[in-house]
Amino acid sequence: MPVRLGRALSLTLLVLASSASLAAAAEISPHRALYSMSLQSAKANSGVVAATGAMTYEWGETCDGWTIVQRFRLNMQYSEQDPVDLTSSLVTWESKDGVRYRFNERRARNGEVDEDIKGDATLASDGQGGTARFTKPEPSEVQLPPGTLFPTAHTLLLIDHGLAGENFIVRNVFDGASVDNASQVTAVMAEKEGEAATASTKIDSPLLKRPSWRTRLAFFPADSKADHPDYELGMRLLDNGVSSEMSLDYGDYAIRAKLDKIEALPKPNC
Q1: Distance between CA atoms of residues 25 and 104, nearest Å
Q2: N or C of the chain: less Cβ packing under 10 Å?
Q3: Cα–Cα nearest to 148, from 169, 171, 166
Q4: Under a CB-based contact definition with an 8 Å cutoff, are residues 68 and 91 in contact?
């Protein structure tokens, strides 16, 4: 959901705790979700006239970590150029203590591989810096600054701050979606709403009958003091980690992701 469109789609649900005491408050529900994607809005000068696609997302739990498996396909239609078909397959694992992370993503454009990224990252300890090591597209290392979070830890942090009534959170997040360093993510969360706020999804699932927050995330490029973000993600974030609706705003156009189906995944028997 990009700076490049493919990269941002990969971030949509990944960035969805800065300390162990905070992380203990969030109770994540492992789940599998299906979203349909469409063009929400577009300025006349954007050149974008339509967008259609689908995304599947699985947030699983193991005894020592969290797994993400995400796949999407999005067809972009333009007024003065040929359509572009974007696909991505992403698999990640993140330790529950938030200090180890593995990532593997393959993105394609019109059937041709655009980016193939694989590697792992570790933090010295909670709140400290660390190192990201890439094996693809070529061997390289990036030094992560102190305070860096991995994606699931960031989602837990958002939920915990929301539960505490805190609505403005700024953190550096490393996701492995590019060979860049951690990006600055600024989050603004509205007041917590009750279960009725998700009724508009018209999906009867206990996973959706939870408190939630309207949340807006702004993604700034790594090592940059830019005044404006690369893009923004709006979503309704539930207190169990589910996102019932999303909107990606690139300034000239916005893509909507609508939840069509959701089911619970089993918790590990540890």
Answers
A1: 29
A2: C
A3: 171
A4: yes
| Reported pTM | 0.88
d(CA 7, CA 48): 18
List C-alpha distances in Å: 157 to 49, 83, 134, 181.
Answer: 37, 38, 26, 20
Measured in whole angstroms, the distance separating CA 157 from the mean position of its chain's CA atoms is 13
- pLDDT digit string (tens) for the chain, length 270 residues: 223 345 555 555 555 533 333 444 678 999 999 999 999 999 989 999 999 999 999 999 999 999 999 999 999 999 999 999 999 999 999 999 999 999 999 999 999 999 999 999 999 987 789 999 999 999 999 999 999 999 999 999 999 999 999 999 999 999 998 888 899 999 999 999 988 777 667 899 999 999 999 999 999 987 667 778 889 999 999 999 999 999 999 999 999 999 999 999 999 998
